[in-house]
Fold Putative pre-16S rRNA nuclease.
Amino acid sequence: MGRILAIDYGTKRTGIAVTDELQIIASGLTTVDTKELIPFLKQYTETENVDKLVVGLPKQMDNTASESEIYIQKFLELLAKAIPHIPVERIDERFTSKMAFQTMIDSGLKKKQRKNKALIDEISATLILQSYLTSQS
């Protein structure tokens, strides 16, 4: 079995989380400058055994697509060309940023650390991945 990689896509930064090879535990991996995302993913998938990519699906409260979905669709087209052999699934990512921020508070991070948007993106990706794992069990 290979890892599952989750992506919390953003126009500036993208949070990335990954499972262990048994696909049990979701852990934050890193935050990447979005301009470097495709090269990062290509390199990662060439050196690690990745079975699936999970990309957040941003939705409004009324279940319609968020404005950022336009950018994600363009990214998904590039991703399909760059890494065609790994399937991509989408999962609802509503509230992950708020949940990530609350997770930071609950874990006792100082106010200065909670302003680290890269960390919020990485935690959001981890929450997306954990939500996906939960939906599969």
Remarks:
- The longest strand covers residues 26-33.
- The chain has a mean pLDDT of 86.
- The chain has one domain: 3-136.
